[in-house]
Amino acid sequence: MIQELNATNLTEFRRLREEHEKLVEAALPANDKAAWDALLKFEMEHESKLRALQDQFQNNRHALTERRRTLNRWLETATTWGFILQQLGFVIVLLAGLVHQHGAEPVRQP
Which of 2, 25, 49, 74 is deepest in the core (most CB within 10 A)? Predict the structure, then answer.
Protein backbone atom coordinates (compact mmCIF):
# COMPACT_ATOMS: atom_id res chain seq x y z
CA MET A 1 0.00 0.00 0.00
CA ILE A 2 2.76 2.46 0.89
CA GLN A 3 4.68 1.40 -2.19
CA GLU A 4 1.69 2.00 -4.45
CA LEU A 5 1.12 5.45 -2.99
CA ASN A 6 4.75 6.47 -3.35
CA ALA A 7 5.84 4.66 -6.51
CA THR A 8 7.64 7.76 -7.78
CA ASN A 9 8.81 9.21 -4.45
CA LEU A 10 11.46 6.95 -2.95
CA THR A 11 12.25 9.28 -0.04
CA GLU A 12 8.62 9.43 1.12
CA PHE A 13 8.26 5.68 0.65
CA ARG A 14 11.27 4.99 2.88
CA ARG A 15 10.07 7.44 5.52
CA LEU A 16 6.58 5.92 5.65
CA ARG A 17 7.94 2.37 5.63
CA GLU A 18 10.16 3.16 8.62
CA GLU A 19 7.22 4.76 10.39
CA HIS A 20 5.08 1.69 9.68
CA GLU A 21 7.81 -0.69 10.88
CA LYS A 22 8.13 1.26 14.13
CA LEU A 23 4.38 1.05 14.67
CA VAL A 24 4.43 -2.70 13.97
CA GLU A 25 7.30 -3.23 16.42
CA ALA A 26 5.46 -1.23 19.06
CA ALA A 27 2.32 -3.31 18.57
CA LEU A 28 4.07 -6.71 18.55
CA PRO A 29 3.89 -7.36 22.30
CA ALA A 30 0.12 -7.56 21.74
CA ASN A 31 -0.73 -6.09 25.10
CA ASP A 32 -0.72 -2.38 24.24
CA LYS A 33 -4.06 -1.35 22.78
CA ALA A 34 -2.83 2.18 22.05
CA ALA A 35 0.02 0.80 19.89
CA TRP A 36 -2.42 -1.38 17.94
CA ASP A 37 -4.77 1.57 17.53
CA ALA A 38 -1.91 3.73 16.22
CA LEU A 39 -0.92 1.01 13.72
CA LEU A 40 -4.50 0.56 12.63
CA LYS A 41 -4.97 4.33 12.24
CA PHE A 42 -1.79 4.58 10.14
CA GLU A 43 -2.86 1.71 7.87
CA MET A 44 -6.42 2.98 7.52
CA GLU A 45 -5.26 6.49 6.58
CA HIS A 46 -2.98 5.18 3.87
CA GLU A 47 -5.52 2.66 2.65
CA SER A 48 -8.04 5.49 2.38
CA LYS A 49 -5.57 7.57 0.33
CA LEU A 50 -4.90 4.60 -1.94
CA ARG A 51 -8.61 3.95 -2.40
CA ALA A 52 -9.15 7.62 -3.29
CA LEU A 53 -6.38 7.45 -5.89
CA GLN A 54 -7.80 4.25 -7.34
CA ASP A 55 -11.27 5.82 -7.51
CA GLN A 56 -9.84 8.87 -9.23
CA PHE A 57 -8.00 6.63 -11.70
CA GLN A 58 -11.16 4.63 -12.45
CA ASN A 59 -13.21 7.81 -12.90
CA ASN A 60 -10.62 9.25 -15.27
CA ARG A 61 -10.47 5.98 -17.16
CA HIS A 62 -14.25 5.88 -17.47
CA ALA A 63 -14.34 9.52 -18.67
CA LEU A 64 -11.64 8.85 -21.26
CA THR A 65 -13.42 5.72 -22.47
CA GLU A 66 -16.64 7.67 -22.89
CA ARG A 67 -14.76 10.45 -24.70
CA ARG A 68 -13.24 7.89 -27.05
CA ARG A 69 -16.69 6.44 -27.80
CA THR A 70 -18.00 9.94 -28.54
CA LEU A 71 -15.11 10.68 -30.87
CA ASN A 72 -15.55 7.33 -32.63
CA ARG A 73 -19.26 8.06 -33.15
CA TRP A 74 -18.39 11.50 -34.51
CA LEU A 75 -15.83 9.95 -36.87
CA GLU A 76 -18.36 7.40 -38.11
CA THR A 77 -20.88 10.18 -38.74
CA ALA A 78 -18.30 12.30 -40.57
CA THR A 79 -17.29 9.30 -42.68
CA THR A 80 -20.92 8.58 -43.59
CA TRP A 81 -21.57 12.20 -44.56
CA GLY A 82 -18.34 12.27 -46.55
CA PHE A 83 -19.46 9.18 -48.47
CA ILE A 84 -22.89 10.72 -49.13
CA LEU A 85 -21.32 13.95 -50.41
CA GLN A 86 -18.94 11.98 -52.61
CA GLN A 87 -21.82 10.04 -54.16
CA LEU A 88 -23.76 13.26 -54.74
CA GLY A 89 -20.70 14.70 -56.41
CA PHE A 90 -20.49 11.69 -58.71
CA VAL A 91 -24.17 12.10 -59.65
CA ILE A 92 -23.70 15.82 -60.35
CA VAL A 93 -20.66 15.17 -62.53
CA LEU A 94 -22.53 12.42 -64.38
CA LEU A 95 -25.54 14.69 -64.95
CA ALA A 96 -23.28 17.55 -66.05
CA GLY A 97 -21.64 15.21 -68.55
CA LEU A 98 -25.02 14.12 -69.90
CA VAL A 99 -26.22 17.73 -70.21
CA HIS A 100 -22.99 18.69 -71.96
CA GLN A 101 -23.24 15.69 -74.28
CA HIS A 102 -26.88 16.40 -75.05
CA GLY A 103 -26.20 20.11 -75.59
CA ALA A 104 -23.31 19.33 -77.96
CA GLU A 105 -25.54 17.38 -80.38
CA PRO A 106 -26.90 19.44 -83.26
CA VAL A 107 -30.58 20.15 -83.04
CA ARG A 108 -32.45 18.29 -85.82
CA GLN A 109 -35.40 19.99 -87.37
CA PRO A 110 -38.12 17.96 -89.01
Answer: 2
